[in-house]
Amino acid sequence: MDDISFDQWKKLDLRIGEIVDVHDHPNADRLYVMTVDLGGEKRTLVAGLKHHYEKDELVGKKIVVFTNLKPVELRGVMSQGMVLAAVEESDEEHIVLLSPEEDIANGAQVR
User: Fold this and answer.
1) Considering the domain 11-97 in this protein, what is its CATH number?
2) How far apart, in whole angstroms, are the C-alpha atoms of residue 89 and residue 78?
3) Do residues 24 and 32 touch, judged by C-beta distance below 8 A?
4) 95 neighbors 85 (Cβ within 8 angstroms)
5) What Å distances lie between residue 88 and 13, 82, 85, 92, CA to CA?
6) Spatial CB neighbours of 9, under 8 Å, sequence gap ≥ 6
7) Domain ranges (residues) in the chain
């Protein structure tokens, strides 16, 4: 991995979001299309979580969202950010979403 400077790290805009809606991606077997409330706005995120979480496990969950990525179209659906998750190198099929340990406002900045 390449090291980045503190100034580069400060450019990342990580926010707390709450998943308010989840549905199957119309053109992909592994993807969900989620609506995430970031406090002052709602965004659509496309995430490869279908084989790791049921829809009802995700709705209401607080997550960490990388918000200042350029939007990208994933199989016909525009994704406006990226959800952060952890995965062990020895078990890349086990994905765990990063979430705050206490309730905090949607849109709170992760520092």
Assistant:
1) 2.40.50.140
2) 29
3) yes
4) yes
5) 24, 19, 10, 6
6) none
7) 11-97
The per-residue pLDDT for 76 is 93
Q: E strands of the chain, at which residues?
A: 14-24, 32-37, 42-47, 62-66, 72-74, 77-79, 82-83, 85-88, 91-97
Q: Give the chain's residues under pLDDT 50.
A: none
pLDDT of residue 88: 82
> The whole model's pTM is what?
0.90
Q: How many CB atoms lie within 10 A of CB 59?
A: 14
Query: Tell me: the pLDDT tens digits for 74-91?
Result: 999 999 999 999 988 777
